[in-house]
Design a protein that fits this description.
alpha+beta, 4 domains, five-stranded antiparallel beta sheet, 15 strands, transmembrane helix, membrane, MscS_channel_2nd
Length: 567
């Protein structure tokens, strides 16, 4: 048994060793040189173009390679520039093909990327002497560096340089064979369009920075085309809204998507014009690409959320009277939960859009965003800016799912009786008894207490308080109120009716009348009727009583009589 087990494990070990050795052998046919200089790729021969002897390139350091290559490209000396490329991946290209590759690579580096010259070491071993000691690559020799990256078909293509040492020769830095192999495909996407090739020579010459004269002229044209498309879209939607005034549903949707569609027309037209006619150079493209993508993503998010918001508001506004009905608990629960789900979907859509924007635009590696991200400034700004908003969103979701305040509920907030009309991300929209709209922050409904009059039972005891003279006959007031409670249709339970003296001072006594109503709206009307009826009853008693004989009912200033002394 022991021998069988040993044989089994030996076979497994041999199989693993063979599986590991095969891919390692197939990875690269180039070996890493041994001491004294291990940071090179050893090759039999160096497959690069032959530069003229009187104008050689500086291939000793990474910075020297890129600088001398770009200098040769500026004067269109493609025979010299071809010496900076490793053609090992190609099938024996002739000199014309090599010069074409060099010209296309120069165009990509000149127009489509921003080279960070400070990141290119000026040492043969590519040791970065300027990086922080916390950088894991600080002080480490390297044999391969990434100069830039270009995105194509949802993939980033690195443009790398490598240090090669041919047999019997000195190590040199050249553009890697994989980078050279990718040049035609990248140039087909980032290179000049047919429109640009048809331009005269003077229009393609460099004006300033990396901008050609045609780009200086094209930029205002691109923006003008986007602005014209946006203006036409805005006008067209305005006409449609005027034509569907009677259709509330379609009118609400058009009103909601008016601005987002206008923004989408602006950004989409710019993207279409750029893709069809103008392919701008690196710095301008680095600015326009993220901005264009930002506008398109925000416009699409705005359209989706606006339509969803409009449909929900339309549904709840048409059923507002039914939602406020005392017995309609199920609809109030349903629309409140739907409101919470809508906010969750909104948050998911927004987070998904922002995530797509960050991944698609690669903001962390372009322009000043890399500086902000490396310093942590961008993260701190986003955290502090979103802390309050995120807290409000979570509070609104908490209110909706806990149903402490449902859409259609009658609540008492800040001394006012209101109906909940909408639960938003950061606020609640309340409708007061006099048809005014009160906007309240959601934090008030999670941090502070409030009264919900329809949470479980819509019926409530209303209280009408009146001030009477201290000499008023409370028994007569109580008898009259009980008769009123029996006769009034708004009082649903006569047993709950009560008349109570709740306070007293030198001026008057305060009497409270209690009665149960079916719902808050009926209760408010009942409270007003009670107050009117009892004050009118007291006034009649006052009018029928003789002065200084019967009891006084209505509050009045006390009269003090001082007898005059007799002579």
């Amino acid at each position: 048994m022991t021998r069988i087990a040993a044989s089994f494990f030996a076979a497994v070990a041999l199989a693993l060793l063979a599986a590991i050795s095969i891919p390692l052998a197939a990875q690269d046919d180039r070996d890493v040189a041994a001491a004294p200089d291990p940071y090179v790729y050893e090759v039999d021969t160096l497959e690069n173009g032959e530069a003229p002897g009187d104008n050689p390139l500086d291939l000793e350091t990474p910075r020297g390679l890129v600088e001398s290559f770009m200098a040769a490209g500026e004067v269109e000396d493609w025979q010299t520039a071809a010496a900076a490329l490793d053609f090992d991946a190609l099938d024996d290209p002739d000199q014309t093909a090599r010069e074409l590759y060099a010209a296309q690579l120069y165009d990509l580096l000149h127009r489509s990327v921003s080279i960070s010259w400070t990141d290119l070491p000026d040492r043969p071993d590519a040791v970065d002497t300027q990086s922080s000691k916390d950088d894991p690559m600080a002080g480490t020799p390297r044999r391969s560096l990434t100069v830039a990256r270009l995105a194509l078909n949802s993939r980033l293509y690195p443009m790398r340089i490598a240090r090669l040492q041919p047999e019997g020769g000195e190590p040199v830095w050249v553009f890697s064979r994989q980078t050279v192999d990718n040049v035609p495909e990248l140039y087909g996407y980032y290179g000049p369009t047919g429109f640009e090739r048809a331009l005269p020579d003077w229009a393609r010459k460099q004006a300033f920075l990396t901008l050609a004269w045609w780009e200086v002229v094209a930029l205002p044209i691109i923006l003008l085309a986007g602005g014209l498309a946006a203006a036409l879209t805005y006008k067209a939607i305005s006409r449609l809204r005027e034509g569907v005034e009677g259709d509330t549903k379609l009118g609400s949707i058009l009103s909601a998507v008016h601005i987002p569609l206008t923004l989408l027309a602006f950004a989409g037209t710019i993207a279409l014009v750029r893709a069809t006619f103008f392919r701008l150079s690196g710095p301008v493209r680095d600015i326009l690409d993220p901005l264009q993508l930002l506008l398109i993503v925000f416009a699409v998010i705005g359209i989706v959320l606006s339509v969803m918001e409009a449909l929900f508001d339309l549904a709840t506004s048409r059923r507002s009277a039914k939602l406020e009905a005392p017995e309609n608990y199920e609809d109030r629960n349903f629309y409140t939960r739907l409101s919470a789900i809508r906010r969750i979907i909104t948050a998911i859509v927004m987070l998904g859009g922002v995530g797509f924007l960050l991944v698609a635009s690669d903001l962390s590696t372009t322009l000043g965003f890399s500086i902000m991200a490396s310093a942590g400034v961008l993260g701190l700004v986003l955290v502090f800016a979103g802390r309050k908003a995120l807290g409000d969103i979570m509070a609104s979701v908490q209110i909706a799912f806990a149903q402490t305040a449902r859409i259609g509920d009658a609540i008492h907030y800040d001394g006012k009786w209101c109906y909940v009309e909408k639960i938003g991300f950061t606020h609640l929209r309340l409708r007061t008894a006099d048809e005014k709209r009160l906007i309240a922050p959601v934090s008030d409904f999670t941090d502070d207490s409030f009264e919900n009059w329809t949470r479980q039972d819509a019926s409530l005891i209303v209280r009408a308080e009146c001030e009477f003279d201290s000499r008023a006959d409370v028994a007569k007031l109580r008898e009259e109120f009980c008769d009123f409670a029996k006769e009034d249709d708004g009082v649903i339970d006569v047993e709950d009716a009560a008349c109570e003296v709740i306070s007293h001072d030198a001026q008057a006594m305060r009497v409270r009348f209690l009665a149960r109503a079916s719902d808050p709206k009926s209760g408010w009307k009942l409270e007003c009727r009670i107050r009117e009826h009892m004050l009118a009853f007291a006034a009649r008693l006052d009018a029928s009583a003789e002065r200084d004989i019967g009891p006084a009912f209505l509050k009045r200033e006390r009269e003090v009589r001082v007898d005059q002394p007799r002579d």
